[in-house]
Amino acid sequence: MTPAWQRLEASASSPVKRHFLHGLALLDRTSYYAILVAMGMMTLLVSAQVFSRYVLSNSIDSADELSRLCFVWAIFLAIPHGIKVGIHVGIDALVTHLPGSLQRRLAQLMAWLSAAMMAALFWVSLGAAASKWQELMPTLPVTAAVFYIAVLVCAGHSCLHLVAQALRLEPLPSAPERPQGADS
């Protein structure tokens, strides 16, 4: 397997593009681990709530809200990873009949338009998070803005991936590399 730094050197011809891809790969890796933590916490919270409710005949007040928060964060952190590799919903019935060069230009245009929409979503969610900052969650002394912050992070991260696609930069893998000798 080719080391990540060699793939990075081959992907970007300018230092600015290399630094952009390196920063994006670091953001991807951080997001990847945050998704794992959020999913793990959600699983533990739901399991503890089920055990507490059915075995101990008691309930953990904040378990539902915390597990919902972990779920929301896991989903919104995962969206940019899907955008990066193109596993989003799309209808290509017309596009597949166009010449290859036109398909590439149309994909580039759509990436720029989508990046602009994500930038707008980032701005709107920034305002939403700011307006909800004083409001607390019902069972926790935590701001209700944490739900909007997930959208904010998703929009910013997605925008960066869409810019990379519009510039035709090949993304680096975000998942940890497999150890030598691991089965595929």
Q: Summed up, what is this model?
A:
The protein is mainly α.
Describe this structure in words.
With 184 residues, this protein is an all-alpha fold. It has one domain. It has 5 helices and no strands. Helix 2 runs antiparallel to helix 3 and helix 3 packs parallel to helix 5.
List the helices and strands and how they pair.
Elements: H1 4-11, H2 15-54, H3 63-85, H4 100-132, H5 146-166
Helix pairs in contact: 2-3, 2-5, 3-5, 4-5
Organism: Billgrantia sulfidoxydans
Domain Tripartite ATP-independent periplasmic transporters DctQ component: 42-169
Keywords: Cell inner membrane, Cell membrane, Membrane, Transmembrane, Transmembrane helix, Transport
